[in-house]
Design a protein that fits this description.
about 290 residues, alpha/beta, TIM Barrel, 9-stranded mixed β-sheet, 9 helices, 9 strands, Glycerophosphodiester phosphodiesterase, GP_PDE_dom, PLC-like_Pdiesterase_TIM-brl
């Protein structure tokens, strides 16, 4: 399977770095995705007890991929046993989240890895990219926020957002960063406080595109829907009503789906397997 050279190619967004190949949201995943040649590094951020911005999808230790601070397996339970918002970062850093083999991703290489700070990830990537002369990488940073989690798993948006923006500003990557969120409250605050910063409204499969944009109250830079909802009719309607709105669906792991989305003219594809996208478009770096 391949894509015609006549086809306009979307951006390649490495989901949680490259979750299908390396432990998610870790330095090994981001560095490997960078080496593969992604255009955008996608990552998630949460907050520790001492207000550090930590790169992690869940605001707790996921028993499927993490060990506890003493290196022990975490038993599954109805309620998270290790809430990162109640743990200082020094304790979080002791927890390995790379050695356990992730059964959902058989190609993932297991290796020792911890949950890094956002500033650490940005510094590591920029130290490689800036001196190299290669096109500068872009960042898609998802703030893991929900009304139900306020002051339980994370601070409320008015406290959460400034912590993240401070790290982005300090790293001097604001012009190359998009803030993603399922929580409209966060995006409205970004639009109010830093209107020049790119935003992406993320949507679950059951959320209608147009009504969600209208509810947001402003037109974001990007719409990020579940890829299963991306078909010809809604894409045509979106392009007609919002011609400048970028469309970057998530999370697309099979080449047949990638090819279909490329044919629909999406602006980016978020995937756990950047290598599969590169094989599809026959642009794997030498």
């Amino acid at each position: 399977m391949s894509v015609s050279s006549q086809t306009s190619l979307p951006e390649l967004h490495g989901h949680r770095g490259c979750r299908g190949l390396r432990p998610e949201n870790t330095l090994p995943a981001f560095l490997h995705a960078l080496a593969l040649g992604v255009d955008v590094l996608e990552m998630d951020v949460v907050i520790s007890a001492d207000h550090q911005v930590v790169v992690s999808h869940e605001p707790w230790l996921n028993p499927a991929i993490c060990l506890d601070p003493e290196g022990r397996i975490i038993e599954n339970s109805p309620f998270p046993r290790f809430n990162l918002y109640q743990m200082p970062y020094a304790t979080i850093r002791r927890c390995d989240c790379g050695l356990r083999h992730h059964h959902v991703f058989p190609e993932q290489v297991s290796e020792r890895a911890y949950k890094p700070l956002l500033r650490e990830v940005l510094a590591a990537i920029e130290a490689i990219v800036r001196p190299s002369g290669r096109p500068q990488i872009r960042y898609a940073i998802e703030i893991k926020s929900s009304p139900a989690g306020d002051n339980i798993f994370h601070p409320a948006p008015e406290f959460f957002l400034p912590l993240v923006l401070a790290e982005i500003d300090e790293a001097q990557v604001s012009a190359r960063t998009t803030v993603l969120c399922f929580d409209p409250r966060v995006l409205r605050l970004v639009h109010l406080q830093q209107p020049d910063l790119a935003t992406c409204l993320l949507l679950e499969a059951n959320q209608p595109w147009l009504a969600s944009i209208q509810e947001l109250g402003f037109i974001p830079t990007t719409l990020g829907p579940d890829f299963t909802t991306v078909t010809a009719a809604p894409v045509h309607q979106l392009r007609t009503l919002y011609p400048n709105l970028r469309l970057v669906p998530w999370t697309v792991n099979h080449q047949c789906d990638m090819a279909a989305l490329i044919a629909l003219g999406v602006d980016g594809i978020t995937t756990d397997y950047p290598n599969r996208f590169l094989d599809l478009v026959q642009l794997r770096p030498i």
